[in-house]
UniProtKB/TrEMBL annotation, chain A:
Protein known as: Sortase, marine proteobacterial type
InterPro entries on file: Sortase, Sortase_D_1, Sortase_dom-sf
TM stretches of this protein: 20-41
Pfam families membership: Sortase
Automatic annotation (TrEMBL), chain B:
Keywords: Membrane, Transmembrane, Transmembrane helix
TM spans (from-to): 166-187, 199-223, 243-265
This protein's name: Uncharacterized protein
Superkingdom assignment: Bacteria
Amino acid sequence: MSDKKVRHGHRSKNGKGFIILPIIFCLVTYLVLYLAFVPSFSPIISAMGMFFSDNEKDYSTEYDNIFVPVSENATVPTVTKKDSDGKEKSYVKKDSVQYPGYGNLFGELIISDCNVDANLFFGDGDVALRNGVGIYAGSFVPGYGGTILVAGHNNTYFNGLKNAQVGQRVEIKTSYGNYVYEITDTAVKSANDSSAYDLSADYENLIMYTCYPFDELGLTSKRFFVYAKLVSGTQIDKGGN
Amino acid sequence: MHSKIRGIVFCLLSFVLSFVLLLLSISVMLEATILNPSYILDNMNTTNYFTDKKDEITRELVDLGYASGLEESFFGNVVETVTIHDDTEDYLESYYNGGSAKISTVAFRQRFNSELDSYIKKNNVKVASSDSREYLINKAASVYEANLRIPMFSMLSPYLTALKDMMPLLIGGLVVFAAILCVIIIFANRWKHRAVRYICYATSGTFITVGIIPAVLFSTGYVSKINIESRAFYNLFVQSINSVLIALAICSAVFLIISIGLFFLHKNMRKHASEE
């Protein structure tokens, strides 16, 4: 009798086997699956990583607002440097500039004579054009010394561009300074006409465009361009001498 | 030495049984969820998908309206939840039947056209040209179609269809294989309580293997961190995956109950065997 007890009980002392063996089974199962499927699934698993972020997506806000207007009396930190002609010139300190990310609201565009007053976004996606006007992400921010290409809908924020005339002033307000431009020209061109703008220009210029004709129904292939030159505003220090 | 080898062999059989039960659990779970045509539709209803989609499509159409001269109020009645529901149902049905899965925009186009006619008459608006009107309607229809298309679904559908066809055979095969393994374990053991013990190892192993997936994913909240631009798709995805994980957790719980039952059966049988 006691001999049988030993024979029946020796394999599962204190019932440890009921815990250890299932855990071993689990580990071996995943090892087998890993060895069997990882070679073929690893690219998919790596790609999956791109679809996940660290936090849950926030659907409550459409865009980030980083625009803090510079008041009339306030001063923006500047540095003095010599320009290419050897003259001393003030630049906005690069540390004090918060460059906008795509889709950020970072300024305001005003053309008083045309009754245009719109939020200025970086990027010209749907959210930007729904809430204001947007700078094409392949162009430059005001003060950087390049072409600023701004888009807006002709039935909303840029409807007033139909009244644009040479000599009118365009104001752009940002958190790092205010900039004033003067309209130099207007033109109607094809939407596909890349000669309508020069994104490689080495001087600051503002180009605003919208669909044309105004106040008509339907999607059109023509665009109304307004060209402006910089009148005043402190340039951003890009580093170097 | 002989009994040691015997023990190892039965442990291996037990492991194979555990593996087969895992595959069976996953197959049954897939059959009940992802491969079930009404599963996605049920989750769509649960997550308010059609209303969310209506809002998203309307918002995108309003953007189109800004670019084409249509007021925001125009789009209030253009998109209907019923149309979205019907078109989505046809689209899913077509996928599960291995069809081309085209999204019909006929009803949407008709509605858009008639609303546009009324708008033009009412507001006496000048239309830029008939081409631009046609372009606008096509653009609106493509916005509607793109919004209804489920991401990655077209890529996965051939696999889903193939899997759906072979699933009854696979489940049947796995059930038979599991039964054969149980019979071998039972009849190859002189002491039946030992057979119960090996089967208990297998079910306990399956309980842990199956249960670890929902446990890890629920505790880390990994699923809810997916980046999907559309809120409707996000809710649908999270709800669908959570349902799958709950199904796995239930499966795991079933194996836990079976394991506990087998454990007490084993104890009881062993006691009786010792007393003989």
